[in-house]
Amino acid sequence: MNFDKNTIIGFVLLVAMMIGFTWYQGNLQKEQMIADQMMADSLRKVAVADSVYKAQLPPVKTDTIAVADSSTLAKEDQELRDRFGVLAAAAKGEERWVNVKTSKMNLVFSTKGGMLKSASLNDEYTSYHTGEPVNLWCDSLSRMQLDFALDGKSYSTTQFYFEPSATQIDVTQSPAKLSMRMSTTDAQSYIEILYLFSNDGYVVNMDWNVVGLGDRMSATNGLPAFDWKITGHSNEKGIAAERSHCSVYYHEGEGDRDYLSESGDDDYTTEENAKWIAFKQDYFTAAIISEENFQTGSKMAVRNREDSSFTKDYAARLILPVKQGRDRTDKFRLYLGPNEYNQLTGTGVDEFDRIIDYGWAIIGTVNRYCVRPLFWFFQSFIPSWGLIILLVTLVIKTVLFPITWKNFLSGAKMRVLKPELDEINKKYEGKDAMAKQQAVMALYRETGVNPFAGCIPVLIQMPILYAMFRFFPAEIVLRGKQFLWAEDLAAYDSIFSWSQDIPLLSWIYGNHVSGFTILMCASTFLYSKMSMGSQPQMAQQPGMPNMTVMMNIFTVMMLFFFNSQPSGLSLYYFIANMVSIGQMWAIRKYFINESAIRAKIEENKKKPKTKSSFMGRLEEAQKMQRQKLQAKKR
Prior knowledge:
Mean pLDDT: 79
Largest sheet: 9 strands, antiparallel
Oligomer: single chain
């Protein structure tokens, strides 16, 4: 055994104490207590790790240790009273867990702080990565607390221990309650967090009750406040796409709901009172709703995570309203569940359903009130979501058929006029471009053909096309639904993948090949070829891009962009393209008679011509432009 300097000194001191103790035993009985006390004091100053030394120590009287422990406890209690005042009674304790189970959720509360520790959903919603029920946040990296000031000092509920009314609750009959009470040194005063659960929903009512202490709570430096930080788990296939739909959503003042950046780090301080804030994941949300609004100056933030196991870090510090009186109650509701339209609207909270980002303005309206009800109508009697997408596509294309017909009719008229347009181009080749434009416009006016008629149907269809682009990534009902080789219509499908990351290719394209994206791009290419072939080929203007080349480039770009998009979206566009190809073929073969169109055009030429206001303004603008060009030449 090796002895260092400190060990030797300790050993010498120990031997000296033993000799002294033996000598004192020869003194009078009245000196015995003094000797024992000296021995006890000396032993507390010497730390001897070896058991041999401990065995050589003389016995110490039990009543002496009890006196010492009592003194230490009294000192600790006094320190707690000095630090926490009337709250000292709750500053010591042992952390325990309270488990609450409903048909929708499994919740865990901590007696240290009295707040929600973890929240997971039932087996209806599972993580893609683990197959376990979705956990709304990472327990070890998250925190929920109430901060307040009492008698001029700042505290947090996480500093205190609460006494639960139960240690386990199985909510079989709605409603059920859980009381977490924090005692004080005043029997008439306490702080309580009261929870109310229902068995069939995702909302937990939470009341913060302050009894007998409200008038001692100062409202300074943004207190009292609800402070909440969470780190979101990755639950979906494709972390990049999942992160792009994660952010903090909130409703401030009387306006529309708003949200922080979904692509990068962002933060915001409210300029008006806020009704609710939500930590939105791709398909799930943890939110808090205030019955009396969070005050101006509340803060919220979102940060991206580098770890592939997590999506983002969320944070909010929400200021509670100032109140008077010895008692105060603040009422909240926690929403802990899926971004499902009926569940969100069921809360009755303004703008809460817009946590689902169906798109802005008319796009969101089309999705909420047209597309989504259509999906749910077919879902009520068709089990396959692939077939439902097929039927929805057929319904949409059928409704849009009159617009499609107008578009093709306009193209047919332009084809009929093509020989005459070619003559005008040949006549004015290398000459005055303005005169050529006026001649073309005169031909349109004479024949009654509107060259812009084909643009209007396209513009009308655009909201529908973009609405579907926003619908599929937002609709949770498609999550986990299989069709053909796609295991999840809410995520990308893969017919071939590779584990090794290939530089540049993995960044641009990914490490998989989406089968439905391949089909969609192939059908887009075919539709473009047929569509361009049905249009009159105008003379290529100098400096103007070749439309055929542009469409081919666009199709290739879609191959890269849609590779990581939801397979349901690619499936929809593939079906829509195939239906459009069928409609194009049928219209050209059975519905459009170009001979009849030419006869109608010839008949229009014989009618007296009246200029429309639009054509008149267009010709006047061309005339003025021509005059300016001529003036410059002079």
